[in-house]
Give the backbone structure.
Amino acid sequence: MPGKLIFDARQVAKSVAEAKMVYSPEQRRPTLQQFIDGGAYGKDLKLNATIAHVVKASTGPELHLVKDDGVYLMANVWFPGTNH
């Protein structure tokens, strides 16, 4: 069903600012597709931690659309104290 996603411009600006902050590679969260494209998963579908670290280090600031009980626009960063 087609529809529109409408976000508050102030909250989007806040997410953009969060994404642009400097974070360690371990705090950046690439998408699954970025891990796959970067070769972090082998044919056995096991994650290669060394390559995953390289993918994280090469991931720049981004905003991701995330869906669970709703749809959220979020920076690609894990903050200390959050669940991974």
